[in-house]
Amino acid sequence: MAKDLKREELIIKLSSLGLYVNSVALGDAMKLESSGFNLTKNPEPVGYLPAPQYLKISEGENPGEIYVEICPVPNATGYVFLYAPSPAPAGNEEWYAKTFSSSKNYITGLKSGVKYSFKSPPAVLWPMEPGCTIIPCQ
Length: 138
Prior knowledge:
Strand content: 25-35%
Strand order of the largest sheet: 4-3-6-7
Number of strands: 7
């Protein structure tokens, strides 16, 4: 049981790391090949993707947890949800990032009582500047 949980945790982390590598490489085959990951197919440039249409934030099931959801973007290989304590920082390097293969997921480990700002570009467009939503984490 514990071994299965650790395996699932590792798969999730490696998948997230793979999405991040894809987002940074922006289709550059040389960068992708040097990442250490086995490539499943030759990368093909998709071009610029539209910004997500909405960013929905709601309370999670547990304290310090937020449920994030955006409208799926066609051809996006993953989604990066950026979050930071409010007021929102100016540059993306000051935001925390969670990468998911799905357009909806939970962000955990937030401090109760702290207001956070959230934004989300498709992972293949890192970095991008869509609007922010500010909500308190409960």
